[in-house]
Amino acid sequence: MSDFRPSLAYLFIYSMEEIKQLIGKELHDFEGKFAEAVKSHVPLLDRIMHYIVKRKGKQIRPMFVLLSARLFSNNITENTYRAAALVELLHTATLVHDDVVDDSLERRGFFSINALWKNKIAVLVGDYLLSKGLLLSVTNKEFRSLEILSRP
């Protein structure tokens, strides 16, 4: 863990890339933990999860979770990583479902899940991501994370 502890004012004067560099190690650790969280014993599902993990987006939501933990406690724990994974799992699930609803063939400059594996599989993949996020929290008795994310 780096010694950087941001203040809110500090975060507004840096670009997203500069902020990523400030929490680079934690973001790298998160990526490994996220990849582990989506693993499956079903070969097709595992191949799709690998496709999703390798084509990650900007990861703004996990960055906010990591930065918030650093800002308010200067301590990034396994709970923090699980909260970041939960947020990213739910977000990715909604993107996969959105691509089905919008009949979008591209996501982040790559083929969408439904373009490669068709709508039925894409819907199930979105559901899998949602269920993995929920299981991650419930298994670790982190109900507060679920409560926070469930608020309207």
Could you characterize what this model shows?
- The chain has 152 residues and is mainly alpha-helical.
- 72% of the residues lie in helices and 3% in strands.
- The chain has a two-stranded antiparallel ribbon.
- A hairpin with a 2-residue loop joins strand 1 and strand 2 (110-111).
- Helix 5 (60-73) packs antiparallel against helix 6 and helix 6 packs antiparallel against helix 7 (113-139).
- The radius of gyration is 16 Å and the shape is globular.
- The protein starts with 7 loop residues before the first helix and ends with a helix.
Strand and helix layout:
Elements: H1 8-11, H2 16-22, H3 24-37, H4 43-54, H5 60-73, H6 78-101, E1 106-107, E2 110-111, H7 113-139, H8 143-150
Antiparallel strand pairs: 1-2
Helix pairs in contact: 3-6, 5-6, 6-7
Short key terms for the protein model shown above:
about 150 residues, two-stranded antiparallel sheet, about 70% helix, mainly alpha, globular, 2 strands, 8 helices
